[in-house]
Amino acid sequence: MKFTPWSIDAASAVLAATCDKPGPVLISLQAIQEEFGYVPEGAVELVAKACNVSRADVHGVLTYYHDLRTSLPPATVLRICVAEACQSVGSRKLVSEVEKSFNTRMDESNKDVELKPVYCLGNCALGPSAIVNGELIGRATAQGIKSMTSVQVSS
Amino acid sequence: MTSTIYIPKDSAARSIGADHVAAVIEAESAKRGISISIIRNGSRGAFWLEPLVEVETKEGRVAYGPVTVADVESLFHSAFHLGGDHRLSLGRTDDIPWLSRQDRVTFARVGIVDPHSMADYQDHGGLVGLRRALSMEQEEIVTEVTQSGLRGRGGAGFPAGIKWRTVMATVGEHKYICCNADEGDSGTFADRMLMEGDPFTLLEGMAIAGLAVGATEGVIYVRSEYPAAYDSLNRAIEIAREFGWLGSDVLGSGIEFDIRTRIGGGSYVCGEETAMLESIEGKRGIVRSKPPLPAVHGLFGKPTVINNVLTLATVPAILAEGAQAYMSRGVGRSVGTQVFQLAGNIARGGIVETAFGITLDSLVNDYGAGTLSGRAVRAVQIGGPLGAYLPVGSMNVSMDYESLLAAGGMLGHGGIVVFDESVDMAQQAKFAMEFCAIESCGKCTPCRLGSTRGAETIEKIMLGEDVSGNKKLLLDLCEVMTDGSLCAMGGLTPLPVRSAMLHFGEDFDRRARV
Lengths: 155, 514
What we know:
Chain A is of the alpha+beta class. Chain A has helices spanning about 10-15, 25-35, 45-50, 55-65, 85, 90-100, 140-145, and strands at about 75-80, 110, 115-120, 130, 135. Chain A has two domains: about 10-65, no CATH class; about 75-145, Glutaredoxin (3-Layer(aba) Sandwich), CATH 3.40.30.10.
């Protein structure tokens, strides 16, 4: 995915569209992340100013929501559903196979790949489910996930 | 002659290749000079048949499935676009027993219509309910919904009409209709399917609610894990405005009602209604103390109706067909239909909408055909991560609010997750606590700390450390969480834990690994 490089001007343009909406803090942070791929440190003060709230308020929202991130995502982002319905069809095994296959650990990220858990993708009759770079996969296998990515991993 | 072919655009169908199948069918038809028109409908909800391809014929739609890219050439060879016979033929879609035995009210149009065609929507009974509501007094609409017996489908089962009456009676210059589309329970996907497959129904239900209580603004809070549902709703809202049934003058009545969407931040507890309000207000999703009830002091402090997607999406049918038709279904105080969701380790998973009162056995074994793995069923979790684990011995329970409560469970949002005999119930109990620890909003102590201590204690039991002492401690902790938590997150997390200990005690009798 292509993101805009961080700049205060670009951020101000993004915030102009969100800051006058009712309850603007979360949607402003979401808009920033959509534009830049993450919420850079400098965004907190800008959002606070634009929404007329304190920096502490913005920080509180930023650190509350699992979706909001403070660093750029790597090229490959993998999310595997680890909630009950997918557990019942082997998501625990899938996680360990994907960890091996990508030489990473759950909840860790390196410069190439990030593996994160997700709790339900609403695809519970076709589990285990995963999201590979934004694409939902049903009946996921480590091999299938691997084939969808171009990550070169030294084993 | 152009053949009309339906290929679902539902996220679940796409997750196993529906887009690829559609693209290959398109390309193959061009290659062969066959004129086809592809409609991307919602899913019928029979997921073991997805991608399910349907063709319009004189005898009605005929179905083929599950179709893979590799089948497309042979499908054309069999002239499937004219309804030709093929190895994957399922006959007329309406005659597939799994579907024909159901009683679809809320899901009447899902999988049948083009989700964003107003013509389709109206041809299949859309807007009839809203038009009728416009001819009624507020009081009459609320009475109709109350009499239908419709209860909140989000999980709590609170009578929708009573909630609406409170909001109607509360004085306020601005009121809101909030739709809770933060469907986070594992094993549930009905809200998502409806928003993707028949979004107009939800909008119509919200408009009716708005008329009934005197609200002019609706907000739909969609979880971020459902991007396709979010897009589908936004597109449907645009179309509804173009057709003049949302906006400043609903169907020429002079009444205002408009809807906007908000997307969540990946927080499970924001499905709790007051945490959801906080999140819509742009704040941390921290649960509010009740009272005041959201009906009186809700979004931005205004009187607010909060209903689940399925609750609101059932309202148009109730207004169109009358309360009597709806309440004639079901058992006892659980009237109408429930959209059950068969999930997890199940051979034939998907949506089963039927009147309350069907047995769990019928859902899991008749509809579901047992486990996907082919091994014996061992446990069934009903109602999401906060729902009880029931053993095979409970399979005859009637699926309604009261019977499930009596059996030590809860219906929740109607999700049914099946586990085979390979499941370790101590591990499942530990997960329930871990999930609570991850998703707790942190406001109250029993939930915030209890969940972490609970996971640790189950870990000790699993390692065989002072098993009887730790089991006692765990039950004590469960009691504190149940009685002392502010909302269902901490209050119901003990339900899966206790039910696992009660019904699957052998999994907790670990010996110390020396």
